[in-house]
Structures are given as structure tokens and as C-alpha cells.
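Backbone-to-sequence.
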């Protein structure tokens, strides 16, 4: 029998202070993005609510305190000075990745360094991103610095979700390149760890195919070699998350690093060295992968877990999840509007709140069966929780990919693990490359075959209010389950 115990909910929330702080903090971030609130008013609210929270210890002052803090963090971030959009100017642009084939040409991502008004001749430093659209006779490569005479056209067309996504990622618009307006191209004087890793991994493969492009995408986040047809197949099959370095990839690397360092506790202070070294290596990997928000979130959670193990303290996963979200929003409040950030955090929350309890409940005596059941449960929890957001942002809900989730995850682990070994230990690439390419070909074939079926996905478009209503229902059901306690049966 079951009984409702509200005190159980209070006890659970008491162990998760960051969860209680995240909700008003995120609300303050969203508020500051839509309304202009004076910074002095926000500071006054923070001081007043802080005093009330210390004296009364009530919930309302605490909520208002974190909401004002979120608004202050967001309003304090100002965009870099924009050049005159849609008007001719000179631009210095660092190419972030190799140009990938697109319809009627190719495309790449560029980092704007400086711009110059041709009439004045003065250069101004800027910091932003732009999509480079190249014609069919031109291609650019990662690590190049371009001097372009042209225009940056702001985004005016596309769905509202696409426009918000590009704005939150710091993209100002598109710049069209051809042999006429490209005045100079040379090697950039600056090199990032991401570019170095991408070039190193590309040199390790003798064949440059779709399989090697998938290995680069899954290992270090370089998706420049993936053609639009294959990208669309991954999207319709529900496997597109494999092509971007995310929490799954970071979790695989986290496990792999801890296995490599398992011998360190045998020496003096070895446990401390192992934990510190594991955290450092995780962040080096995330930076080498281009530091996407989902990987940063996973790295923050892995770091919290690693230090919790170092201090022998209790690890509350949801509290770490909320702490990671707050840390990332403090660093860049715009991430709250990015679909990748939203999908990542919603999926992890569903796994922690639904997937893990169900795995414990449905555990059997057979280990292999447990692996299959738990993979299906984790995949179903993540897919179900992200389906409303996917329908809102992309108008599609993948179905068949869920049933093959255990195979997909296993092949993904092989690709990421082999890719990392090829990158770190070049002499073994001759033996490991065929394994990585074989697993990548298996994923490509799986994605293509699933996407070929009409029932592989459902076209569904949801409004923003519908998505909010669905997630409020999810939250209400979760809180209700937290209040339920199973009564012990007494046999007379």
C-alpha cells in the first residue's frame, strides 16, 4: 500500500540546495533577457532580500535574492560592438573548421577578430561569430585567417527557434565568400587545442570517408566532413546526439580516464593525485573538443563527483546537476536559450529522476539482462523527456532509434574510446583505426536504414506554451512520486 508523506518531499529538497536556487536564478536570467531592469535596482533587491533571508530564513526572500542575482548577471553582460551589418567593410576572420559541403557551395564557421571601415581606414577589435558561405569554386580550412571585403547579413529568415539559437551562440549573421572578395588568406598566428586535435586526428586516417568524419565528430566535435544527407539520416533516426560531443562522450572519457589511473592509489597520496589528474584531463578533453555546452555541463558534474570521492562526502546527483547549470549560466547566461543546453540538462534530469530509480526497481539476477534493460530504460527516459523540446525546435520526434539504443551506445563507446587512443598514442593508430572505422560504418548504416523507414520518426510541431505545460506536468508527477512512501505489509 502507498501513502502520501509531504515531509518526504521536504527532506529530499533539503539535500538539494542548488536545485532550489536554480529555479529562481534561471527565472531572473530569462526576465533580464526580455526586460530592461536597472542594475542599481537589482543590487538593492539583492541586499534587501539577503538581509531578510538571514533574519527570517523564509523561502520567499531567498527566491527573490537568486532571481535578482540571475538578472544582474545577465544585464551585466554586454555584447561586443557590432560592425555596420549589411554594409561593406573589411573583416579579419579566423576559420574555426573546414568548410563542409552545402547546397550550391560549402559552409564553415568563422571567428570575427577585427573590422575596418574602408572610408576611414581605422581598425576596431570585435569578438563574435559568423557563418561563412563559400561558392562552389572556393573552400576554406580550419586555422586560416582571412581578410575579406564584404558584408555581414543578419539573420532575418528561418524559424524563430533557429534565430534564437544563432543569437544565443553569438552568431551575427552570414558572410558570402568568393574569389573576388577574399583579399588575403594565411595561416592564423593563433592555434587552439581544438584545431590541433582535429588536424592530428585527421592525419591518423589514411582514408577520408564518412566513417572517418564520424570518428572526428564523435571524438573531438569536428563535424566539417559530414555531408548533409548523412546528417539528416542521423537526425531522423534519433542518433544526432552522437555527432556532437556531449554528456555521453564526456562520460565515456571520464570512465576511461579513471580506469587508466586505477593504479595510482597504490602509491602514497595516490588517491589525491588520481582525482586531481582525472579532473584536469577531463577539462583538457572538453577544451580540445571545442567546449560545447553539453560537454562543459558533463565536465562540471564529473568534477563534482570526482571531488566528492576525494572528500569521502555524499554525492547528490541532482544537486550536482543544478550546480553545473548555475555555473554555466553565470559564465554565459545566453546558454539558457540554446536548444543544445536545454536538451542536455533535461535529458540528464530525466535519467536521474526517472531512469536510475526504474533501473534499481527492475534489477534482475542476470547481469547481461540488466545491461540491456537498463540501457533501454535510460534511453527511454532521455528520449521521452526531450521529445517535447525536439518537437518544438525541429518539428520531429524520432521513434525507432529508441529500440536500438543499447547497440548505438555500445558502438559509440567503441568509436570514442578508439578515437581517444588514436589521438593520445599515435603508434597504435594502425591497429586501432580499422576498429574505429568499422564501428563508425556500423553507426552510419544503422542511421541510414532507420531513417529510410517512414515510421522512424513523426512530424510534430509544438508551441512554446504547450512545451511549458508538458514539462510542468512532468515536474508535478515527479514531486508527487517523491511524496509517496510504500507502507510495510504486516502479516497476521
Amino acid at each position: 500500500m502507498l501513502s502520501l508523506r509531504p515531509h518526504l518531499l521536504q527532506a529530499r529538497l533539503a539535500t538539494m540546495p542548488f536545485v532550489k536556487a536554480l529555479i529562481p536564478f534561471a527565472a531572473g536570467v530569462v526576465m533580464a533577457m526580455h526586460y530592461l531592469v536597472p542594475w542599481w535596482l537589482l543590487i538593492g533587491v539583492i541586499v534587501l532580500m539577503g538581509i531578510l533571508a538571514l533574519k527570517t530564513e523564509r523561502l520567499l526572500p531567498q527566491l527573490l535574492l537568486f532571481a535578482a542575482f540571475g538578472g544582474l548577471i545577465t544585464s551585466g553582460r554586454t555584447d561586443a560592438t557590432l560592425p555596420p551589418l549589411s554594409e561593406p567593410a573589411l573583416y579579419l576572420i579566423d576559420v574555426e573548421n573546414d568548410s563542409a559541403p552545402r547546397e550550391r557551395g560549402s559552409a564553415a564557421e568563422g571567428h570575427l577578430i577585427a573590422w575596418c571601415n574602408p572610408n576611414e581606414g581605422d581598425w576596431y577589435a570585435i569578438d563574435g561569430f559568423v557563418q561563412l558561405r563559400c561558392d562552389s569554386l572556393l573552400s576554406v580550412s580550419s586555422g586560416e585567417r582571412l581578410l575579406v571585403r564584404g558584408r555581414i547579413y543578419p539573420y532575418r529568415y528561418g524559424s524563430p527557434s533557429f534565430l534564437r539559437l544563432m543569437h544565443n551562440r553569438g552568431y551575427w549573421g552570414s558572410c558570402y565568400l568568393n574569389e573576388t572578395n577574399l583579399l588575403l588568406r594565411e595561416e592564423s598566428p593563433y592555434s587552439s587545442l581544438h584545431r590541433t586535435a582535429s588536424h592530428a586526428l585527421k592525419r591518423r586516417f589514411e582514408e577520408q570517408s564518412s566513417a572517418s568524419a564520424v570518428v572526428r565528430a564523435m571524438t573531438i566535435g569536428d563535424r566539417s566532413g559530414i555531408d548533409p544527407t548523412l546528417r539528416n539520416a542521423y537526425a531522423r533516426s534519433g542518433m544526432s546526439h552522437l555527432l556532437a560531443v556531449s554528456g555521453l562522450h564526456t562520460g565515456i572519457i571520464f570512465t576511461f580516464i579513471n580506469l587508466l589511473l586505477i593504479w595510482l592509489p597504490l602509491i602514497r597520496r595516490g588517491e589525491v593525485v588520481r582525482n586531481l589528474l582525472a579532473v584536469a584531463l577531463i577539462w583538457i578533453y572538453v577544451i580540445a573538443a571545442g567546449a560545447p555546452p553539453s560537454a562543459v555541463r558533463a565536465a562540471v558534474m564529473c568534477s563534482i563527483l570526482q571531488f566528492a570521492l576525494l572528500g569521502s562526502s555524499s554525492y547528490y546527483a541532482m544537486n550536482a546537476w543544478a550546480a553545473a547549470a548555475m555555473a554555466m549560466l553565470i559564465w554565459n547566461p545566453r546558454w539558457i536559450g540554446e536548444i543544445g543546453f536545454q536538451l542536455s540538462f533535461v535529458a540528464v534530469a530525466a535519467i536521474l529522476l526517472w531512469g536510475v530509480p526504474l533501473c534499481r526497481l527492475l534489477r534482475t539476477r542476470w547481469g547481461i539482462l540488466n545491461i540491456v534493460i537498463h540501457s533501454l530504460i535510460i534511453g527511454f527516459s532521455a528520449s521521452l523527456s526531450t521529445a517535447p523540446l525536439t518537437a518544438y525546435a525541429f518539428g520531429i520526434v524520432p521513434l525507432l532509434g529508441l529500440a536500438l539504443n543499447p547497440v548505438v551506445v555500445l558502438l559509440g563507446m567503441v568509436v570514442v574510446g578508439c578515437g581517444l587512443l588514436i589521438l593520445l598514442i599515435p603508434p597504435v593508430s594502425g591497429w586501432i583505426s580499422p576498429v574505429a572505422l568499422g564501428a563508425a560504418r556500423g553507426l552510419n548504416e544503422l542511421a541510414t536504414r532507420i531513417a529510410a523507414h517512414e515510421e522512424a520518426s513523426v512530424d510534430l510541431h509544438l508551441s512554446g506554451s504547450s512545451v511549458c505545460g508538458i514539462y510542468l506536468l512532468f515536474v508535478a508527477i515527479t514531486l508527487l512520486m517523491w511524496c509517496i512512501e510504500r507502507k510495510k505489509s504486516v502479516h497476521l
